Amino acid sequence: MLKKRVMKNYIPSIGYLLSVSAVLIYPLSSCTHDPENIDELDEVCFDTQVLPILKTSCGISGCHDGTEEEFPLTDYNSVIDLVNPGDPRGSKLYKIITDIKSDDMMPPDNPLTKTQRNIIQVWIMQGAVETVCSQDTGVIPVEKVCFVQDILPMILSSCGVTGCHDQITQEEGHVYVDYAGIIEHGIEPFDPNGSEIYEVVTETGEDRMPPAPRAPLTAEQIADLREWIEDGAPNSDCPGNVCDSAGTISFSAQVDPILKKNCVGCHNASLTSGNVNLSGYGNVAIQADNIRNGLPVMVGSINRMTGYVAMPVTFSLDACNIVTIEKWIEQGAADN
C-alpha cells in the first residue's frame, strides 16, 4: 500500500491546466500517448481530482458502486487494485477508459473527456498516490460540450434541413436528424480530422458545408464540434449546464447564442428564409417587435402555435430556451 500524503493548500496551477490538456494526441485507433514533460507537471490530487471523476462516471448505481459489477470504484482501495503505479498502459483502469475500439470501454455510452482521461493518466504516472488535499480546493473544472444541447441543434439547423440531410431529402444517403444517423455517416469518435462532418464544415469554397447561400458554421460552433468529437462523441444530455432563464435576460449572452445555434443557419443575410434575418441584434429586434393578434410572431413560432409557422422547422427548442426568448421580449428586448 502506498503511503498517504497530505497536500496542504494545493491549488492546480494554470500551467498544469494547460499542460495536462495538451499531453495527449488521439490517433484513430487509440487515445493514449505518454507525455514527455511528466516531471514538470504539478501533482494530481486523488481525492479532489481523480476520485470525483470515477465516482460520478463509474461508481454509480448499476455500474461500479459495488452492488452489481465485479469491482467498485468508490474509494482509493478499490481504485488502486486496478492500477499499476507509474504505468498507465499497464493499468486496467487506464485501459478501459481509453480502449475506444473495444466493447469493454468504460463508461460505455458516455466516454470520459480528454481532460478527465489526462488527469487519470498523469496521476498514475506520478505514482497513483492517495493524496488528500485541503477542503477549500476544488476539482479541476472540465468544460464539456453536450450532444443534445450543443451539437444536435447545430447540425439540425445547418445540415438536417430540406434539400440537404433531412429524412426526406437524404442527400448522398446521409440523414443528420438524430444521434444514430450523425454517428453512422459523419463522425469517427476521438478523431475530428477523420470525421466527414468535421471535414466538410471546415472546408472553403465550393466544398464547404453547409453550401452557400447557407451560413457556414461559426468558429465557436466548429470548436464545439471538434471538442465533442475529441471527447468521444458521446450521446450526452446535460440541460442543467447550459440554460438559466432567471433574472434579466441578456441578448448577447443568452438570446443570441440560442438563435445562432438553432436559427441563423436558415435566417441570415444570405439566406433569409421567409424574409426573416436573425443575424445580429437589429434584425432580431425587428422580429421581436412584429406583433400578430397581440402576440410576438417569434413567440408564436418557437411555441409552434396554430396560425404561426413553426420554427425551427425540423425540431423544437427546449422549454428553457423558449422561456429565455419569451422573457427577453417581455423585458423589452434590450440590446444588453
General shape? elongated
The residue fraction in helices comes out at 25-40%
State the helix count.
13
Q: Quick one: biggest sheet?
A: 2 strands, parallel
Rounded to the nearest angstrom, the distance between the terminal CA atoms is 57 Å
Computed structural class: mainly alpha
Strand order of the largest sheet: 1-2
Number of strands: 4
**Low-confidence runs (pLDDT<50, min 5 residues)?**
1-30, 136-142
Please, how many domains?
Answer: 3
List the secondary-structure elements in sequence, H or E.
Answer: EHHHHHEHHHHHHEEHH
Walk me through the structure.
The protein is mostly helical. It has 3 domains: 6-133, no CATH class; 147-230, no CATH class; 243-330, no CATH class. The protein contains 13 helices and 4 strands. The protein is elongated and about 65 Å long.
